[in-house]
Amino acid sequence: MTNFEELGLKPEILQSIQELGFEKPMPVQAEVIPVLLDADTDMVALAQTGTGKTAAFGLPLINKFDFSTKHTEAIILSPTRELCVQIANDLKKFSKYVEGASVAPVYGGASIDAQIRVLKKGVKIIVGTPGRTLDLIKRKVIDLSKVRYVVLDEADEMLNMGFQDELNGILEVTPKDKHTLLFSATMPREVEHIANGYMHNPVRITIGTRNAGSENVQHYYYLVHAKDRYLALKRIADYYPNIYAIIFCRTKKETQEVADMLIKDNYNADALHGDLSQAQRDHVMSRFRHKNLQMLVATDVAARGLDVNNLTHVINYNMPDELEQYTHRSGRTGRADKSGISIAIINLKEKFKIRHIEKAINKKFEQAQIPTGKEVCQKQLFHMIDKIETVEDNAAIEPFLETIYKKLSWLDREELIKRFVSIEFNRFLEYYRNAPDLNVTEERNESHRNEGGKTRRERERDRARKDCEFARIFINYGRKQGAVPQRIIRIINDTVGIREMEIGHIDIMDSFSFIDIEKSYVNEFLKAFGKRKDSRYVVEEAQPKSSRGRGEGRKGERDSSDRNERSDRKPRGERSSKGESKRKSDNGGYQSKNDSKTSWNKKSSKSDRRESKGRRR
Ligand code: AMP
Beta-carbon neighbour count of residue 28 at 10 Å? Predict the structure, then answer.
């Protein structure tokens, strides 16, 4: 299918597509649109972000619906409010010339009364975040009894963000004969579970390979010491003067810190994370969209709804906790058929993550070298020369030129150029005069290893860990609520955000879990959870009760033999649940045995399989 006309869409829809400048269907559209136009069916479509998914499901639905009636025929669920608004706006544009078309977004953090007023007029296509949608269903404002289509957009993200219960609640009130369209960038087991459990013979469409990143993205990694991460980021930013990038961090705290440092160092950067108000987020996103900001430092969740097509780079300042998240991050660039670069700044211990990603996305990373100070200066110099060559004439300068010529007449051409260029260039020269090489070579690290195979740094870290006292924390979040170690760590990262805080074992029970955390952080930890806007987690320090065995009874402390196991504690980001130490050499402890979603590991052990089987519903 080479053009939209051949797809069989109504003329009024073709008119809006033409206005939007869509010349030919993107691959996901060429595959999905004919199927949906041809029949009412369930569908599972695996496609990356930015591949044109909204039009793929939006155009056929608009084409199918009878807008002369007012009842709701489609509910589209999306993980974030930004994405929700974006989808609704796209659908409004697609249906601009369709008479009576009505599309409305509903999402949290905005006045529910205003949304209720719009809904009461009768809305054919509702686009909602799961929480607000369920709320409006309970208030009997949204009636899904006549819905023909449920669209789950970015299904993996919705499950990642813990919306399983809300999704169940919403799907429950939809008719049995409705059709479900599931779009996801990755296919973890939880998404398969929905596809298998709730859908009837879905048509399966895969654009690219499973869990694969965009075809247009090149992947590079830079190997540095963890302490040099920020310096490396600055070098990269300086080496690409036209950089237009999202820099991904893992926690809100880290996001703010990196943005603050960049701003302090005079970079055109800002932060985007969930601790900002909606108005602040909108403002930052708008500045970034309009290219008034070159670098956006963001958390994964906050960046989800950002629709920017021409990023030059995605930078993984810290690698994500989950493999799928990398696909989402790198998919922010290389969108809409443009090429892009995804960069990972890693230390030696994180190298295995690169290998796992390579396997999952079936693409190779190239190791790149952090540019030397000289290389950065050279790049900046030529960037400046280019700017001089292409600067636009400005008539306003004319009246001053005569005097300027006279004043500088004693300088010859070469001297003049040198002085002008030096004004800008000296700043970089000064900064980079004695700039060290930030690249880490594996040989260099090897040479510092002792007989035990450990570097001095690793030995120091082990010693520090042995000295570290742990406290046990109870949380009312267990297997039944979808708890896996990675999710628990993510919740902690998002809520507490203290990177230095050690986390030891995580024991997951059916409806609660125990987490060992560094004792000195207990107060801060509890306080941070107390400050959460939602009150879904009950978090308390577990009372010592040596007579109880591990995991027996709420808040029971494990016995002393468990304590002795704690010598294999891992730093944040490399934490795992109990029983995993035997695989440590394989994966550096990045994945826990209980995790059913993340696929950093090459293959699951017998116990993994047993565990995941037991949990499958
Ligand atoms: P989406 O994945 O739906 O967020 O789309 C990603 C971007 O591609 C959006 O900015 C769309 O406006 C744009 N887009 C979608 N379909 C096409 C098309 N056929 N031609 C050009 N751009 C498109």
Answer: 24
Please give the DSSP secondary-structure letter assigned to residue 124.
Answer: S
Measured distance CA(271)–CA(332) in Å, rounded: 17
User: In terms of Cα–Cα distance, which of 205, 254, 252, 201 is closest to 226?
Assistant: 254
Q: Whose CA is nearest to atom 15 of ligand 1?
A: 52
Handedness of CA 180, 185, 187, 191 (dihedral sign): negative
**Ligand 1 binding pocket includes 476 (Cβ within 6 Å):** no
Pocket test for ligand 1, best of 4, 5, 18, 26 (most atoms within 8 A of CB): 26
Q: Is 105 in the pocket of ligand 1 (CB under 6 A)?
A: no
Q: Which residues pair with 198 in a beta bridge?
A: none
Segment-wise mean pLDDT, segments of 10 residues, the chain, 617 residues: 83 95 90 92 85 93 94 94 91 96 93 95 96 96 96 88 89 93 84 82 75 71 93 93 93 94 93 89 90 94 77 93 83 72 92 87 89 86 84 86 93 90 80 84 54 55 60 89 84 81 82 88 89 83 53 34 29 33 30 34 31 27
- pLDDT given at position 336: 60
How many angstroms does the Cα of residue 50 sit away from the middle of ligand 1?
7
- Rounded-to-integer distance, Cα 568 and Cα 376, Å: 41
Does ligand 1 have an atom closer than 6 angstroms to the CB of 221? no
User: Is 305 touching ligand 1 by the criterion CB < 6 Å?
Assistant: no
Tokens 């990373």 map to which residue? Answer: 365
Say if pTM beats, i.e. exceeds, 0.90: no
